[in-house]
From TrEMBL:
Record's keyword terms, sorted: Hydrolase, Manganese, Metal-binding, Methyltransferase, Nickel, S-adenosyl-L-methionine, Transferase
The keyword Metal-binding belongs to this UniProt entry's keyword annotation: yes
Tagged with keyword S-adenosyl-L-methionine: yes
Record-linked Pfam families: ARMT1-like_dom
Alphabetical list of InterPro entries matching this protein: ARMT-1-like_metal-bd_sf, ARMT1, ARMT1-like_metal-bd
Catalysed reactions listed for this entry: beta-D-fructose 1-phosphate + H2O = D-fructose + phosphate; L-glutamyl-[protein] + S-adenosyl-L-methionine = [protein]-L-glutamate 5-O-methyl ester + S-adenosyl-L-homocysteine; beta-D-fructose 6-phosphate = dihydroxyacetone + D-glyceraldehyde 3-phosphate
Entry remark concerning the domains of this protein: Subfamily III proteins have a conserved RTxK motif about 40-50 residues from the C-terminus; the threonine may be replaced by serine or cysteine.
Name of the protein: Sugar phosphate phosphatase
Species for this entry: Homo sapiens (Human)
Coiled-coil region(s): none
Domain Damage-control phosphatase ARMT1-like metal-binding: 1-300
Family the entry assigns: Belongs to the damage-control phosphatase family. Sugar phosphate phosphatase III subfamily.
A GO biological-process term: methylation
Domain of life: Eukaryota
Length: 322
């Protein structure tokens, strides 16, 4: 459907770059201003003291920003039917209350991997984190906040972003959305928000942040087909030290959108897709979930029949060496 919409538009100059979802995505950003200001303020204050933090404090901040990125995934315009899905509360104040709703929590694995990379990294070498993006608007802000922290804490030296080549699934991020949002943040009249935007623009100029396009992300293939369908992309992903897959559609394509038993191991459900250590960060909005404890999914289904489609629950699910 999204490709058909795009085909119709590109045959109609001068609107060949028209995004039918542009207004909805921008409204999501504008409606989340207070929350974005709170996050940018937190990040800038954190960066100013980051060299004074001990390892446990740094780890706590890393976990905090990972959780913010997770709950940012609730702001999905395809789930809300195009209605407002802006974030109008300070998610920083809600993290403790939301912890019981994280069904799988592999954040420790992410910390262990990146902190070890940092400790063993040679001067000239790089640590690359790739983020396969989901929604624009507030969620993209949470992803950029996390990416900024990764650089500022030296847990990564480069962050690579993958978005969609065409407008896709209502609020999915394109290069236009990515650049537009950074411009909006930079031109904010709030000093910490505008400082974030200026820093992000500088990261792009310096090559520390790199945005990539690839048509594969808008093709119907499950990701285990990538080595055959898009070997160039698979080879690029193999350069990552860690790949973060955001959101529901990425999870569905990682697991082939099959009707797996809840307790099937994540590694098995990936069906041979193992380019690099990876983690899916997702609030559940589709009827697919693997890697749960025996009986856990059935118990949730009995008490909350819609538990896996409302975005109430979230996961950090890792696959890679431990």
């Amino acid at each position: 459907m999204y490709r058909r919409i795009h085909e119709a538009i590109i045959q109609s100059p001068p609107i060949d770059y028209f995004d039918v979802f542009k207004e909805s995505k921008e409204q999501n950003f504008y409606g989340s201003q207070e929350s974005i200001i709170a996050l940018c303020t937190h990040l800038q204050q954190l960066i100013r003291t980051i060299e004074d933090l001990d390892e446990n404090q740094l780890k706590d901040e890393f976990f905090k920003l990972l959780q913010i990125s997770l709950w940012g995934n609730k702001c999905d315009l395809s789930l809300s039917g195009g209605e407002s899905s802006s974030q109008n509360t300070n998610v920083l104040n809600s993290l403790e209350d939301l912890k019981p709703f994280i069904l799988l929590n592999d954040m420790e694995h992410l910390w262990s991997l990146l902190s070890n990379c940092k400790k063993t990294r040679e001067k000239a070498s790089a640590t690359r984190v790739y983020i396969v993006l989901d929604n624009s608007g507030f969620e993209l802000v949470t992803d950029l906040i996390l990416a900024d922290f990764l650089l500022s804490s030296e847990l990564a030296t480069e962050v690579h972003f993958y978005g969609k080549t065409i407008p896709w699934f209502v609020s999915d991020t394109t290069i236009h959305d990515f650049n537009w949002l950074i411009e909006q943040v930079k031109h904010s009249n709030h000093k910490w928000m505008s400082k974030c935007g200026a820093d992000w623009e500088e990261y792009i100029k310096m090559g520390k942040w790199v945005y990539h396009n690839h048509i594969f992300w808008t093709l119907p293939h499950e990701y285990c087909a990538m080595p055959q369908v898009a070997p160039d992309l698979y080879a690029e992903l193999q350069k990552a030290h860690l790949i973060l897959f955001k959101g529901d559609l990425n999870y569905r394509k990682l697991t082939g959108d099959r009707k797996w038993e809840f307790s099937v191991p994540f590694h098995q459900a990936l069906n041979g897709f193992h380019p690099a250590p990876l983690c899916t960060i997702r609030t559940l909005k589709a009827e697919i979930q693997v890697g749960l404890q025996p009986g856990q999914g059935e118990q949730l289904l009995a008490s909350e029949p819609s538990w896996w489609t409302t975005g109430k629950y979230g996961i950090f699910q890792y696959d890679g060496p431990l």
